[in-house]
Amino acid sequence: xxxxxxxxxxxxxxxxxxxxxxxxxxxxxxxxxxxxxxxxxxxxxxxxxxxxxxxxxxxxxxxxxxxxxxxxxxxxxxxxxxxxxxxxxxxxxxxxxxxxxxxxxxxxxxxxxxxxxxxxxxxxxxxxxxxxxxxxxxxxxxxxxxxxxxxxxxxxxxxxxxxxxxxxxxxxxxxxxxxxxxxxxxxxxxxxxxxxxxxxxxxxxxx
Amino acid sequence: xxxxxxxxxxxxxxxxxxxxxxxxxxxxxxxxxxxxxxxxxxxxxxxxxxxxxxxxxxxxxxxxxxxxxxxxxxxxxxxxxxxxxxxxxxxxxxxxxxxxxxxxxxxxxxxxxxxxxxxxxxxxxxxxxxxxxxxxxxxxxxxxxxxxxxxxxxxxxxxxxxxxxxxxxxxxxxxxxxxxxxxxxxxxxxxxxxxxxxxxxxxxxxxxxxxxxxxxxxxxxxxxxxxxxxxxxxxxxxxxx
Lengths: 207, 241
Fold this sequence. Notes:
The structure holds two protein chains of two kinds.
Chain A: H1 5-15, H2 22-34, H3 37-53, E1 54-56, E2 63-65, H4 71-74, E3 82-86, H5 89-98, E4 104-107, H6 125-134, E5 139-142, H7 148-161, E6 167-170, H8 186-194
Parallel strand pairs in A: 3-4, 3-5, 5-6
Antiparallel strand pairs in A: 1-2
Helix pairs in contact in A: 1-2
Chain B: E1 3-16, E2 20-27, E3 32-37, E4 56-62, E5 69-78, H1 81-85, H2 87-103, H3 111-126, H4 132-143, E6 162-166, E7 171-174, E8 181-182, H5 185-195, H6 199-204, H7 209-226, H8 231-236
Parallel strand pairs in B: 3-5
Antiparallel strand pairs in B: 1-2, 1-4, 2-3, 4-5, 6-7, 6-8
Helix pairs in contact in B: 2-3, 2-4, 3-4, 4-7, 5-7
């Protein structure tokens, strides 16, 4: 037995969402059909509203609501001279939670991954270079993921930003706070040793 | 034999569910295998870092009933650190992985191919020689049984001189029967040396006018054989403006 075309269309649309297979799509569709009308309408309205009001920031490609630029780019209290480069908008939320960063952002909208066909043209690298050229930027912090694609993206950015004479830094990589050294994997621990910080330079004490 | 051990190169990986990954591997004894690595996307994962593409690992898998095996243990053999830190070399290494991913068959042991891939990655890791990828592609084609004909015209059997390379017939053509892409004598010489056991010397040699030509020809030949474009190669040619 097959479903009526309306139900099938709903299942197919849901099935195109990431992480939702045909079986999950069917489950969600039936949940919506059984649910009270308000619930289904609230979901549909949320989707329509989000699509209408939210766009990408013209400057940093973060999500932005109500205007060409996002709330962070519009905020005059943010430091203009430091730009933190991230892969996706979600990463901004993670960095904002640290409350350690008061500069601005730039979202690449992906990571360098040749095997998936993602290269410099698919990333917002050109836009970053334009910003470095036009704005008063002194430092670019590369905060891409510490995995293969993220590291490759970092080296790609260095390649293109080097001639522009801007300071480029990379976020450190190391052990999770509250963890035990003995359970750390050797790669992370190795990186932590590589990026160690000076506690005391070892100069002889005076007197 | 539910559990087995092998050596493998990680070709690529996909996210699966909340915290898992599907890893595509080319193994020494079991051909191309796809396995599930459970929980590797969590920060607590101890072997997630070892299963990134480009890694050469010693691995233990559990063969279940389905298509996907479960990865139970991983140790690093080679990490190819230099390849990872250089965007250009990384893209070229990925082109080789993509080619192997296309050519290799699931669970069809191909030791020669595995060894060839590991050697090519090691070479590219040690020195940034322009012809590593082209040489790998040519050797891969020879391994697949479609080595290009470089000594006799594919039309008349003439021993040269040659003027063109014909992709459909997979070989060179003399002036009289020219068809396909023009080819220089330097490129033919270089390709003969690569396929004739002179690879070491070719990689040592400085970049000449034929280098780029051979690189393009080898890619075009492989793409012709695969009947599809290689995405990594397209990315290599990109510029930000």
